[in-house]
Design brief:
- With 106 residues, this protein is mainly α.
- It has two domains: 3-41, no CATH class; 55-102, no CATH class.
- The chain is 52% helix and 0% strand.
- The chain contains five helices and no strands.
C-alpha cells in the first residue's frame, strides 16, 4: 500500500464527515477498514516480539493469580468440576497458562 492511497482515503473520509472526523469514526476505520484497518493486516504474533503484548504474554503473574482464585472459590463451594472459559480474541495464552497453574490438561 502506498501512503498516497491512505492519505486520499483519509481526505475523502474527512470530506464525507463534513470537515472533521469524529474519534469514534476514526477508530472504526483505523481498526476495521477492509484495506487500511489494523485487524485487516493479519496480525501473526502477540507478545514481546509481536505486534502488541498483553499481560498474559509477558508474565505468569496474572494466570497464576486467576488459578489461585479459581482454586480458592472451588474449595469454598465444594466444586469438583469447574467450567473455566476465556473470552477474547487472543491466542489462548491466558487460558493455557491458567490451566497449567491448575495442573489441568492443556
Amino acid at each position: 500500500m502506498k501512503s498516497g492511497e491512505l492519505l486520499n482515503f483519509l481526505l475523502e473520509l474527512q470530506r464525507e464527515c463534513g470537515g472533521s472526523i469524529s474519534f469514534e469514526r476514526y477508530m472504526q476505520e483505523a481498526l476495521y477498514h477492509p484495506r487500511f484497518g489494523y485487524y485487516s493486516s493479519k496480525i501473526q504474533n502477540i507478545g514481546s516480539k509481536g505486534d502488541f503484548s498483553t499481560s498474559a504474554t509477558l508474565d505468569e503473574g496474572l494466570p497464576q493469580a486467576i488459578a489461585a482464585w479459581i482454586t480458592t472459590r472451588a474449595k469454598e463451594r465444594g466444586w469438583r468440576c469447574i467450567p473455566v472459559i476465556e473470552i477474547g480474541a487472543g491466542s489462548g495464552t491466558l487460558a493455557r497458562a491458567i490451566l497449567r497453574h491448575l495442573n489441568w490438561r492443556t
